[in-house]
Design a protein that fits this description.
Layout: H1 13-19, H2 37-43, H3 47-61, H4 75-79, E1 85-87, H5 90-96, H6 103-132, H7 142-165, H8 169-172, E2 176-179, E3 191-193, H9 194-215, H10 217-220, H11 242-256, H12 259-271, E4 299-304, H13 308-316, E5 326-330, H14 331-337, H15 340-343, H16 347-352, E6 353-355, E7 363-366, E8 381-386, H17 387-397, H18 402-411, H19 424-439, H20 445-451, E9 456-459, E10 464-467, H21 479-485
Antiparallel strand pairs: 1-5, 2-3, 4-8, 5-7, 6-7, 9-10
Helix pairs in contact: 1-6, 3-6, 6-7, 7-9, 7-11, 9-11, 11-12, 11-17, 12-17, 17-18, 17-19
Length: 490
């Protein structure tokens, strides 16, 4: 698919959003072309047009600039100190040192900002058109589902921009944050504070949940077949479904420090019974191509990325001759994160961690995202929310029961030694290590550390707790955004 072509000199969000006008067929989703009002109205004259716009949003999310790489196993994992080293990529090496103003790193960061707000613009125009649409043109439940997904995705994107480009609530809840854009307009959207942005995220999520609870088949239990609207409401895990929205609410409440609501939302996802732990038979098989490395049954929300192999193989794995980059940990990290005394049977170490082939027998990476030759049921998937995170949220919401929730995860990862720590600091370390083991290649470590404003990370040659400059938690907004949008995060 083609990339966006931006001809604007000014990149600040208000003008950028207004410039990202609606697109045509699915194959052309990433071509930004001017549209007249007549063409826009024509696109939204049928339910198909609304579906196509929403599909275009998922295509944008799946690009290598966003969750297809940079906002998962790429830049966000790198700045979260998930890797010990980088082989073959200067930009990533500089990012590992948190040199955000290095030209190549700055370009990656600016693209994340730009593409996120471009996608938000698409969602805002979709929502605007939904408000004016004749609901009778929509099939059963489709209006509510499309609107609920759009609101959920708008919150999802703003939340991640907030977590990347501003201070955390733990650092300064009243700090200037980002523009929370809810209109398709040329007007500059003023920045909200961190807390105000979180309130807007949660409000969008709540409205989305209200719509989806009454219409989303994953919540209502309505049986969908391929003959129902061509199966449009099938495969809800690939969409911002009702439980993905509730999981996002758990994330947002935890980030805000509202443990009661975070716990309630996480428990609803767990208690739904819609997501089951992956069984050992799907992991420990000797046929590597049949290993369910991304734990598909546990995925609350995932993207289907048709080009994932072309993104992943050159960026992570060296067993392919085309590999250009290796993101790896060393054997010290491997042994500290998965100590033999307690984790020698951990599936995530035994079946996923492999030597990188970087001319060192001590360098390892995870084969979680390996694509070539894999069972077709396990490829082209990028998990964005998975079941274990809900247990980790419960562990943080109630330290007295943290060991219980951590042990549920261990039991379903082949670990026989249970958590026995009772001290709060020791339990927090166990939670952090569990994030590392579970979410390697998924972009969650940065957010976990930042939420606590942690000034110590597991890193260094020996994977010991080392000092971290908390200023590195805030990525720089694009210079044009700061200048013309009058932004600040200080």
């Amino acid at each position: 698919m083609k990339k966006h072509i931006y001809k604007m000199k000014v990149m600040f969000s208000c003008v950028l959003l207004a410039s990202c006008l609606l697109l045509t067929a699915c194959d052309d989703w990433l071509d930004v072309k001017p549209k007249t009002q007549i063409e826009s109205d024509d696109m939204f004259s049928s339910e198909t047009g609304f579906k196509d716009v929403l599909n275009g949003v998922y295509v944008n999310l799946s690009s290598s600039d966003m969750y297809g790489r940079e906002m998962t196993y790429g830049l966000v994992d790198i700045i979260g100190d998930t890797y010990y080293g980088v082989y073959g990529n200067t930009n990533y090496s500089r990012a590992l040192s948190h040199e955000y103003t290095f030209t190549g790193v700055e370009e990656i960061i600016n693209t994340i900002w730009k593409k996120s707000y471009t996608t938000i613009a698409m969602l805002n125009e979709l929502l605007n058109q939904l408000e004016q649409a004749d609901k009778s043109m929509f099939g059963t439940d489709n209006y509510n589902v499309i609107k609920g997904e759009a609101l959920g995705l708008r919150a999802f994107l703003h939340f991640d921009i907030l977590r990347l480009f501003t201070q955390s609530p733990a650092a300064n809840a009243n700090a200037p944050a980002i523009p929370y854009v809810t209109e398709y307009t040329f007007r500059i959207t003023p920045s909200s504070t961190v807390n105000e942005t979180l309130e807007k995220v949660i409000a969008d999520l709540q409205t989305a949940a209200d719509l989806l609870k009454q219409s989303d088949p994953i919540a209502t239990g309505r049986e969908i077949t391929t003959t129902d609207d061509s199966g449009y409401l099938l495969n809800r895990q690939y969409h911002m479904n009702y439980y993905a929205v509730k999981a996002m609410m758990a994330r947002a409440y935890l980030y805000k420090g509202d443990m009661g609501n975070a716990r309630q939302c996480a428990q609803e996802v767990i208690g739904s019974g819609k997501f089951s732990w992956t069984k050992v038979d799907y992991i420990a098989t000797t046929q590597e191509s049949d290993r369910d490395r991304t734990f598909t049954s546990e995925q609350v929300f995932a993207l289907q990325i048709d080009n994932l192999d072309s993104y992943v193989i050159p960026s992570v794995y060296s067993s392919a001759t085309s590999a250009l980059v290796r993101l790896y940990i060393n054997s010290n990290w491997l042994d500290k994160a998965w100590p033999a005394a307690t984790h020698s049977t951990d599936w995530r170490r035994v079946y996923f961690m492999t030597n990188t082939g970087t001319n060192s027998p001590s360098n390892y990476t995870s084969s979680k995202l390996w694509q070539e030759g894999m069972n077709e049921n396990y490829v082209k998937r990028m998990p964005l929310i998975r079941l274990p995170e809900m247990y980790l949220i419960l562990a943080e919401c109630d330290v007295s029961a943290a060991a219980t929730w951590l042990n549920v995860i261990r039991e379903h990862r082949g670990v026989t030694a249970m958590v026995e720590a009772t001290e709060a600091d020791a339990l927090q370390d166990e939670i952090t290590l569990e994030y590392f083991r579970e979410y390697f290649n998924e972009g969650q470590m940065f957010y976990h550390y930042k939420r606590m404003n942690a000034d110590m990370h597991f890193k260094g040659y020996s994977f010991n707790k080392s000092a971290y400059n908390t200023g590195d938690y805030v990525l720089p907004m694009p210079a044009e955004e700061i200048e013309f949008g009058n932004r600040t995060t200080k």
